[in-house]
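Worked example 2:
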Amino acid sequence: MEGGVNRGRWNKKAPVGTTLFLMCMLIPTLALLQSCPHGDYLSEKGICCNKCSPGFKLAEECHAAQQRSNCTLCPDGEYTDEMNYQINCRRCRRCRTEKHEVVKSNCEKNQNTICRCVEGYYKFDIDSETYECRKCSQCRPDEKKKETCTPEKNTVCECQENYYRVKSKCEPCKNCTTECKHHCAPPLMTTRDPGEKENLIIIIAGIAAVALVLVVLLVVITYMATKRSIKKELLKSSSQPSDSSPDTCEVLINSEEPSNNISVKAAPQSPVSEQDQLSNLPDCVPLEIKIPDLIYTVLDLVPVLQVKQLVRFLGVKDTDIEQAELDHRSCREAHYQMLRVWAERGSHTGGEGRGRMLHWPLLQELMDKLRKMHLGRAAEELETKYNIQ
């Protein structure tokens, strides 16, 4: 009966013991899963504390989050060369004179002593951390020195002329066998004129110079031909008349150089009296706008990286774009020429004294392209500046 009672009590306590056991197992695992910011470490209390800088050691850990650990400077003869949370610094290394070592740089708080081999010895690595100083090798009589011995590298030797290496020895090349065939001098070398090599170099240099001149001439001729064809195309397009309808609202574009103020004025429709002129004006009064002012206004509103995209949308050919970049080293002046090509191709000559006229649909096209390029603010600025409805 008592055994049954004890068994019942054990069964009731078993889940509690199991829970405590699982908690003890999970707490270290959860601590490992917790991550600290870069430069901090997870203390035994589960708090992220800062590490000590090189040259310092940990004197006291932080006691709460957002607190700083207490770090102290390493004593003389000791160092730390990385971020750490060690309570002890490392002892500085001593260079072993009996092993042919000398001090290259003394020990610092944040750097161990650096040793090197004395003259006549070189560093031979035994493993990634261990090395020894060995005496520099001397080249044998059948060898010649290729690289001098240094404290970091042994002497490098190679076989003398007309010798070739067989395993670790240099053997003389006597019968021009396959192994040393490249050491044998061709028979014709003894009868060749010493000045023949210099003559060959002069001939090669002359051919290279002629080829270079031909390439430069070809580039210049291509450039001039391209420039001439583009000018002819511009003259041809500018000389073609375009119809002008009296019912179409037009903008007069003056090609004069830009001035301080933009000249915007009503353009007369015909040489009649002022009263008749006012009575016959269309709904949209023509404006006279100087081409340079219009283009520079567009350049001020449109980002530099989007100007070439805009002129392409406006129908300017790649050849005109490339020519503008060739003619002008300044990016702004090149963009100005691209837009001028568009403006002059879309304009035509009006009456005497009226300058060059641009149809309203072409100006409207400029506004539409600006909006399609998500530059609606630029389009609104132009409409406000030139009072375009």
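The chain has three domains: 30-115, 119-185, 230-238+246-269+283-385. Confidence is low (pLDDT under 50) at residues 5-14, 187-191, 238-286, 348-355.
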